[in-house]
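=== RUN LOG ===
request id: a7f3
mode: sequence -> structure
chains: 1
length: 144
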Amino acid sequence: MRLTTQTDYALRMLMFLAINEGNQTIDDIATAYGISKNHLMKVAQRLAAAGLIDSQRGRGGGLSLSSAPEDINVGHVVRLMEETSKFVECQTGAANSCVITPACGLVHILSDALELFLSHLDRFALSDIIKNRKGLEKIFSFSG
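=== RESULT ===
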């Protein structure tokens, strides 16, 4: 399974916010990773709507984690950002046009594999993926 760019950016944004205390701007995050501010704005909107980050407008505003890194589950973030219920066409219900669906066992195999993948991610929190905090701080040291 390949994660979408939005999921990748969401995880990166959360890591950046976990490492850098206080409000951080989209510009800071985009500069740190060399990625599009427009894409990050969309990701930030989704993360804020889900309650994973706080967003404050205006002078002194920016983005910050709404919870401690140990309380943000990686599996939850991936489910939020990915369309996991339609991993293959035969999972789409009425929109399914695959002619072999009635005789094919692939949907169950792929559904089980996806659930195992997600349940594995459920075992980890944001704090687990920023364990090398000193190494990450060196990378992000420009953001002071």
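=== NOTES ===
Helices lie at 5-19, 26-33, 37-49, 74-81, 106-121, 126-129, 133-139.
The CA atoms of residues 4 and 46 lie 14 Å apart.
=== END ===
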